[in-house]
Amino acid sequence: MSEITRRAVLRGAAGLAGVAALGGLASCSRSTGSVLGPGSDAVATAEAARRVKGGQLVRARLTPRPVTLDLGGRAVRTWAYGETAPGPLLRATAGDVLRVDVGNQLPAATSVHWHGLALRNDMDGVPGMTQDPIAAGGSFRYEFTVPDPGTYFYHPHSGVQLDRGLYGVLVVDDPAEPGRYDKEWVVVLDDWVDGTGRSPDQVLADLQQAGGDGSMGGMAGMDHGSMMGGSMMGGMPGMEGMQSPLLGGAGDIAYPHYVVNGRAATDPVTLAAKPGQRVRVRFVNAGSDTAFRVAVGGHRMTVTHSDGFPVTPVPTDALLIGMGERFDVTLTLSDGVFPLVASAEGKKGRGLAVIRTAPGRRPFADVPVPELSGQTLLGTDLFPSDSVRLERRSTDRRHDLVLGGSMAPYRWTLNGKTFPDSEPLPVMQGERVRLRFVNQTMMFHPMHVHGHTFALTRGGTRKDTVVVRPMQALEVDLDADNPGQWATHCHNIYHAETGMMTTLSYQAQE
Hints:
510 residues; mainly beta; 35 strands
């Protein structure tokens, strides 16, 4: 365990004046000390090293605001970056500089986090850790080099705002990409509650109220899933047991809708192509509490990338995608009309898109898809391409991250503490760092490290978000080559907001 004190992570916000706390994801205060904060010279130096000759300036604008969206026959009032969810697709080439002006028209402060990118620390979008929050009516310019090709996405790091319509995809193209496919589809998966009679903030309040002071009939401090099978504790209809044979406790919330590209299964989006075409599909799980098992009726997929980085291509019937994970697959299309199904793992419900290469009747929302019961891959089952294997070297520093929590009271911990009281993880620039995630709960946790990709010690796959299954340990290695203060947390947004978060904290050389 780290011996660094809580004050060190607070010192990581040096230069952030008057930071306002935004719930569990944004508690930091201004101070000075021995950490490399977001305004340090080391951060500017690392950004300068990322700049490449010939890189272009790519401009974009995001305007988070209240909107009414059509989920497919149902209008919902929510927050989004435009008139649709997902928000605008942003696209750049590796080495380009992305400049995004954000004008906040929400009635609350917000932020934009660039999920998966090894960008400069002061642009990472974590209020109270890397920047001031963007106040209601305020604005902020994000400007940074996009160093690595891949599939990424953007979303707030403010409270549980992710569980609204505030997300979009960033594709970073590889200038050396050989292509070898005829079409590309971006497919975003989400669990949806906002505007259906309750907001994500109400869901969080219900989870906390149901947990209360931990009494709950003598079940105080109960680990998630240990007695209730992952029951939905938020007071929403269903109160169903949510269990997955692959993931154990599969979530805390029984959502009324699961959507693909912003459309419910009753009125799905259509993806059109021609028979025989080879398609690259970029899958993004933007959900807050739901893993999705994805399959295409009548087809096998070949997985080619995980969290932006290439893997040894492997065919599969289905793919299990945790919150925050991204996978690229290819498939060669047959002649007809086919369901692309995103089944909410361990829950009741599914998202649906329609792949159409010929005339024919649209599949029903509950169409049987045998591939969902076939070979199913997780990100931990993959192996990296040789070109992205992490160089072999000795480990300089190790940190254990023990994942804990309970439904009563509703709180989730790292090393027995909730953020911001969790102990930071000190590292020094240039070190090889091993993180050991130890899951002591009966629920899976998709663990995400900001500003870095890591390599699984078993297999070597490069990722930034990895599913840690119940009562298991998983080790990853990363190179400490991006100075700053970096959030490290569970990407179940309700777990992160109630405490399962800490800081990968770069220390200044003495």
